[in-house]
Design goal:
The protein contains nine helices and 14 strands. It has 360 residues and is of the alpha/beta class. Helix 2 crosses helix 6, helix 3 crosses helix 4 and helix 6 packs across helix 7.
């Protein structure tokens, strides 16, 4: 078996151990004579899969009993609308714009109420996280919204905003389970799993029970009614069954590695190898303010488009895939999610050193 080191921002690398387990169970899951992807979502066997996945996620994150865990569809982009539809009681929300996805979420929220931009880092191409210690939070805001890790621009909140008592909503698509978080500091935590947990198609929403409403506007589609989805335990309709099954395996993989504290230490070690090289390189340059750097997504540039294209091409030939930066910013980007092994980052840095020597 020949596997490349896959630095894709998503869908992204998955643990080899998980893929092998899924391979072994592909035709016959635990003696039932069928694959999970052929299984009825109403069967007792699938119920066990989704229940176990939820229990393991609750244990990993320390999710309190007064929070519901939902496994839904639609991409995080659908839930840019789900959030204001379900949470805008006063019709007001505050958004901190730190990248393309926070901006798109804000644009979507503008359709359902008054969405205020209370801070932004767009002035410097989203290369930093704004000071969120004393924001002009609206008195009647139903929530304050952040994208916790910015996949495209490589920034991450290392300190949560001071929301002045308002509910915090966070899109955690690209740093989900990368380290421990205090769930009780949030009203809603949500994200797509295709970057750090599983295959595309599953969204996880963790929402405090008191935010689930009976008095939703009539225009809210049934499939975006979070109270109904919670009452039906993510089984109102056919969920993304196989994706949930893989997520469950990844939860167990993280538990076996020692949980989220161990995962954070592992991620910090990987990121340090790459950032240390970038900080001392004469050819490559990181693009993010040091104190706001992401552990998950590392953008960097050479400053010469032809040289960057050459780097991406030669890296691919060396088995280092998907290093081209997002089309909106160019350059290069290495996504080093939970499942990226240390050896992958070491191989990337070794290749970058070689490339620098040959092209100095």
């Amino acid at each position: 078996m020949s596997r490349v080191y896959n630095f894709s921002a998503g869908p992204a690398v998955l643990p080899v151990e998980v893929l092998k387990e899924a391979q072994e169970e592909m035709l016959d899951y635990r003696g039932c004579g069928m694959s999970v992807m052929e299984m009825s979502h109403r069967s007792s066997m699938f119920q066990e899969i989704i229940d176990e996945a939820e229990a393991d996620l609750r244990e990993l994150m320390g999710i309190p009993d007064n929070y519901k865990v939902l496994f839904l569809q639609g991409g995080a982009s659908l839930h840019f609308a789900t959030i204001p539809m379900n949470l805008m009681k006063n019709g007001v929300a505050d958004y901190i714009i730190t990248g393309q996805w926070a901006k798109k979420a804000w644009q979507e929220a503008c359709k359902y109420g008054k969405a205020n931009k209370i801070a932004s880092s767009e002035d410097k191409t989203f290369s930093y996280i704004p000071d969120c210690s004393d924001l002009p939070v609206s008195e009647d805001a139903d929530y304050v919204y952040i994208c916790q890790n910015n996949t495209i621009y490589g920034t991450e909140y290392h300190t949560l905003p001071n929301t002045k008592g308002k509910i915090l909503v966070a899109d955690v698509s690209s740093d989900f389970l990368s380290g421990p978080i205090d769930v009780e500091k949030y009203g809603v935590i949500y994200g797509g799993v295709q970057k750090n947990i599983g295959p595309s198609g599953v969204q996880i929403i963790i929402i405090r029970e008191d935010l689930l409403r009976d008095d939703l506007p009539e225009y809210v589609p049934t499939m975006m009614n979070l109270k109904l989805m919670a009452e039906k335990k993510s089984l109102y309709n056919t969920p993304p069954c196989y994706g949930i099954y893989i997520c469950g395996k990844v939860f167990k993989w993280i538990k076996n590695l020692g949980g989220l504290e161990a995962m954070k230490a592992r991620n910090e070690k990987k990121a340090a190898i790459l950032y240390d090289f970038l900080d001392n390189s004469k050819l490559f340059k990181g693009t993010v303010r040091k104190e706001d750097r992401s552990l998950m997504n590392v953008p960097f540039v050479i400053g010469d488009k032809d040289m960057e294209a050459k780097f991406v091409k030669e890296a691919k030939e060396a088995g280092l895939e998907n290093l081209k930066g997002h089309r909106t910013v160019g350059g290069m980007r290495a996504s080093i999610y939970n499942a990226m092994p240390m050896e992958g980052v070491e191989a990337l840095v070794a290749f970058m050193k070689k490339f620098e020597e040959e092209n100095a």
